[in-house]
Amino acid sequence: MNKQKLITQTLDQIPQANSHAKRIVGLVKDGGRITGYQLSDSSIVEKQQAVDMAKQGQISGVGIAHRRDTEYLKSIPDRSENNNLGNLPSVSPEANA
Q1: Is 64 exposed, middle or buried (0-12, 13-18, 19+ CB in 10 A)?
Q2: How many helices (H) and strands (E) does the chain have?
Q3: 69 assigned to some structural domain
Q4: What's the predicted TM-score (pTM) here?
Q5: How far apart are CA 79 and CA 59, in angstroms?
Q6: Signed CA dihedral, 48, 23, 87, 44: sign only
Q7: In this structure, are residues 35 and 46 in contact, taking their beta carbons and an 8 Å threshold?
Q8: Among 8-17, 44-53, 76-85, which stretch is predicted with the lowest mean pLDDT?
Q9: Nearest Cα to Cα of residue 36 among 48, 52, 23, 53
Q10: What pLDDT is stored for residue 32 in this prediction?
Q11: What pLDDT is stored for residue 84 in this prediction?
């Protein structure tokens, strides 16, 4: 089994992004944990809101995974390290306030 297929199998679902979907461009962190995301339109959304938006096709390039009872977003593997969520810059939650 190739690595790409194995990684995509760790995702619970890969929603189909709509034509107006935003991209995640930054991470909001608290104590090293991701609590939210900055989107390509500069808005800041909380982690659960981003999961809900991704399920509705409003965020592209991500899939839904879970750990215990908590859903979270993961990058869809595409052979580019630059757009992996873990490689995105941290942003201040006040950036959009």
Answers
A1: middle
A2: 2, 6
A3: yes
A4: 0.82
A5: 19
A6: negative
A7: yes
A8: 76-85
A9: 48
A10: 87
A11: 80
Give the dihedral of Cα atoms 49, 85, 78, 74; nearest 10 deg.
-50
> What's the one-letter identity of residue 52?
D
Q: The domain containing residue 10 runs over which residues?
A: 3-80
Counted domains in the chain = 1
**Residues 18-38 pLDDT 10s:** 999 999 999 999 988 899 999
pLDDT in tens, 45-73: 999 999 999 999 999 999 999 989 999 99
Burial of 28 per CB tally in 10 Å (0-12, 13-18, 19+): buried
| Matching residue, tokens 């709509």 | 18
